[in-house]
Design brief:
This protein is of the alpha/beta class. The chain is built from 14 helices and twelve strands. The protein binds pyridoxal-5'-phosphate.
Length: 424
């Protein structure tokens, strides 16, 4: 191979740094193996696939999964549910958030965070993120009104939000704090487990997450009252209250119960999580410490530190145009990369792509819950969170997982440095 081919970007016909496919974004599901198989088969053999059958209730797989979460996170209560979205909805109901209340959320999160708020009749109030990719506490404070009831803090891409500042602000304004840790299962903030710091923590066990049951979720809290309210909402029949004393008044619920098969599957996964995260964290630390030597790209201080699970690499370049070029050039070099906000791909992590929110539309063609608060004159547009959009326009993302090897990291760094000198 001539020097020229190595020097030329693959985008312009040069030799790519790598021809092997880049790693997938999946973690827990890559590890599915004999333990999970055995647990699921055991459940099938027992013929006990519904959690609340009276016989064997205390030894159910769902109860075991809740017990593991409680001890893992150090919370008093846990509730297994069938998705991260239903965990968020139960958390909002548990906190008493309802029609016409305002709930603040970051402008960069999965669409489910916003949808959950409207499902309980509350009005989503968007807030800027900062370069950490999580909610900006200063902007959060600006968006509080007398009608704000709660804030959903999202630990985005496995990065912990600034919980000290958020808890301080929430206390001053008497707000409930719900942690959306769907993307940060197993993460920490100053040594404390994510999900255990606010009033309620919510996790997703969908396949893109650290560990998975395919579809599933978990809600954790230290408050018996909030837990009981969540239990009521996750199960309209209130089955659990046939076995424990109900201390809250009855209200109607949904059916967000997890099956025994799903619980058994993720029990096997929870044991594997520390090893997965040790690998992703140490890889990210290595990648970030090398990338900090490359002056043409920017990284937030939090990246690669304790508060970053290392599930993804995001870096910033000077402009929207250069982010597009860098993502294309990296992909051509054999490292699949994404321009985070390209204005085209309709990524449902970015608020301007949440069509129902932008048009304030409900499932019946009307404008509930915004119609409850006409005086609010709530509008959502590109100018609602301009900093977030500008930041994400300059952001390039590469998926990481625990299977990234030293060779993969070498290829990644070689490709970024090759591109940085030529394109930035
Ligand atoms: C930040 C965030 N919140 C909530 C959810 C919803 O979780 P689920 O897909 O399990 O409903 C997801 C993932 O899908 C997510 O990434």
């Amino acid at each position: 191979m001539g020097m020229k081919a190595m020097d030329t970007l693959a985008l312009y016909g040069g030799t790519p740094v790598r021809t092997k496919p880049w790693v997938s974004k999946y973690m827990g599901s890559e590890e599915l193996g004999t333990e999970e198989k055995e647990r699921v088969l055991d459940v099938l053999e027992k013929k006990r696939i519904f959690r609340y059958l009276p016989k064997g209730l205390e030894t159910s797989e769902c109860a075991a999964l809740e017990a593991e979460y409680k001890s893992f996170l150090g919370t008093n209560y846990a509730l297994a549910v069938n998705s991260g979205t239903s965990a968020l909805i139960c958390a909002l109901v548990a906190c008493g958030v309802g029609p016409g209340d305002e709930v603040i959320l970051p402008a960069y999160t999965w669409v489910a965070t916003a949808a959950a708020i409207t499902m309980v009749g509350a009005i989503p109030v968007l807030c800027e993120i900062d370069e950490s990719l999580t909610i900006d506490p200063e902007d959060l404070e600006q968006r509080i009104t007398p009608r704000t009831k709660a804030v959903i803090v999202v630990h985005m891409r496995g990065i912990s939000a600034a919980m000290d500042s958020i808890m301080f602000i929430a206390k001053q304004h008497n707000l409930r704090v719900i942690e959306d840790a769907a993307q940060a299962n197993g993460g920490t903030y100053k040594g404390r487990m994510l999900g255990s710091i606010g009033d309620v923590g919510c996790f997703s066990l969908q396949q893109s997450k650290v560990i998975t049951t395919g579809e599933g979720g978990m809600l954790v809290t230290n408050s018996e009252e909030l837990w009981q309210r969540a239990v009521l909402y996750h199960d309209g029949a209130g089955y659990q209250f046939r076995f424990i004393e109900r201390k809250v008044p009855a209200f109607p619920g949904q059916n967000y119960r997890l099956t025994e098969l799903q619980a058994a599957l993720s029990l096997g996964q929870l044991q594997k999580m520390p090893r997965i995260l040790e690998q992703t964290r140490s890889n990210k630390q290595k990648i970030v410490s090398e990338l900090r030597k490359q002056p043409k790209i920017q990284l937030a201080p939090v990246f690669g530190g304790e508060e970053d699970l290392g599930l993804s690499l995001i870096f910033y370049v000077p402009s929207r145009e250069s982010a597009k070029n860098v993502a294309e050039a990296l992909t051509a070099e054999g490292i699949e990369a994404f321009h985070v906000y390209d204005g085209v791909s309709n990524d449902q992590h970015i608020y301007v792509n949440w069509e129902f929110l932008m048009s304030k539309r409900d499932p019946w063609g009307d404008h509930y819950p915004w119609s409850l608060r006409p005086e609010m004159e709530m509008e959502y547009s590109a100018s609602t969170c301009p900093f977030t959009l500008e930041l994400l326009q300059r952001a390039v993302q590469v998926h990481l997982n625990h299977l990234v090897t030293q060779d993969d990291m070498d290829d990644l760094l070689t490709a970024i440095n090759k591109i940085a000198v030529r394109l930035l």
